[in-house]
Structure formats: C-alpha cells, structure tokens
Amino acid sequence: MTLKIIVDNFIDIQLLVTGSSSLELATGIKEPLTGRKFEYNLFSFSISELANNKNLLAEEQALEKRLIYGSYPDAINYPGEEKELLLNLTNNYLFKDILSLTSIRKPLQLEKLVQALALQMGNEVSYQELGQIIDADKQTVEKYIDLLEQCFIIFKLTAFSKNLPNEIKKSRKIYFYDNGIRNAIIQNFSPLGLRQDTGALFENYIISEYIKRNNNKRKFAKYYFWRSFQQQEIDLIEEVDGGINAMEIKWNENKKVKFPTTFTDAYFINTTAVINKKNYSSFLM
Q: What is the domain partition of the chain in residue ranges?
C-alpha cells in the first residue's frame, strides 16, 4: 500500500519493501528522529507518472480502467489479471495484515466498517450511524477510521467553514486512496455502463489524484468540501497559504455548474474550476 518514509539529517533510510505494509513500517520504527526531518508519501502510480511512461493520450484512453481497477503497480503491470490481484491484495493486506498488527478484537466489525465506507464513498458519513451498522460505539468507529487512515486506505475531507452561520461545520466525507481497492472491497468490477456509481468513482479518482499530484510536487495544502444547510455544495476546497481554490467535479462534461454566490461572496477565492472527463488531465499533470 502507500508508504510513508521519514528521513532526517542524521539518518539515511533505504527501504526494500517486499510485501511489508505501511502500518508495519510505521509501527516498526521506534527510534526518535532528531533534527530536521522530511516525510515522503509514496502513493500508487499517478497519472503523470503513467503518462510519462507511455503518453498522455494513452493514459486518458485508460480512464475507465483507472476508475475500476485503480493505479497500484500490479493492476497496471498485469493487464487482464487486475481483479484477482486486487482481491488478493485486499484480502491479504487489508484484513489479515492490519488485524495481525493491531489489537482489534472484533475483526468482523472492521470488515463491515470498510464495506460501509466503500458503499458511502464520497458521501457525508456519521460515526454514530456507522456504529449502528457495525454494532460498535462512536469511539470505536473513530479508532478504526484513524487506523485505516494511518494505513493509507482512506482519507477524510472535513467541512470548510469560517464565516457563514448556515454552513455545515462538523461533517466529514470519506474517500479511498485507490479506486481499485474500493471496488475490491465491494467486489464490483463491472464496466461503467453497468454501474450506478460512476460519478462517485470519478470524484474519488480526481480528489485522490489531485492530492497525489500536490504531494509529488511538494505543494502543501489543506483539503475540504463545502456545503450549506440549503444543500449548496462544492466538491473540493483547496486552501494554500490562506488562499482558496474551489473545484466542482462532474463526470458529465455538459453539466452546467454555477458556484454558489453564498460562498464566493464570503471568501477570497483565487480560482474556481469545473473538472470533468474531458479536461481532467490538465488539472492532474
């Protein structure tokens, strides 16, 4: 899965990873790091890396495959075997390795939670409602979600709110770092023409790839979504040095989008953008 490598000016760490999980690496390094340190997140392949390996047009033509099978190396390097490889990765790493490296006493709860998060991908989630699904309290759900974040399976977007009284302030959305892992969890690799979640898959892909892009370029930003009680919504808010970039993500390139003046009048906005399947690569390269 995604790895986090920490290097300081006294320690040079070189990792040869053969099946080790990010959680194992994170929990296995106990020595304190002193002095300056740098953290590098090694994600699955980005669109720019894949485009540089072949060409951008070929990668754009592979968009449906990326939405269904994701961008993990095995899913890229072994075409035709993606489904089996992703199911094996999910079953062996996500459930077996995480459970063996932690003190989780009810593995079925974790499995049910991951499935619930996969089915609600990109939607606002309630820890209390998730707890009812897996028969656990809110604190246990929060612990499991924190664990899944540490393992780079999922990431949260919290609601952006600073000024407006009608803004949703404490809500959160859950996304997956890789579409292939998400689809393996729910065991659905159907083509886009047979799916009801194409928009959610595209949104998840764009947000995860955008975060991956910025990380690879060493661009440090905070990410949010925005919604008001009147159901006005913006999919992705990027905050960099106090400046705000607002992005709407639409699979249908003909979908008309208007950014709510409630938001744009209240905040200093650097840029607004609508990302769709026709122009998405220009935002991710």
A: 1-42, 47-284
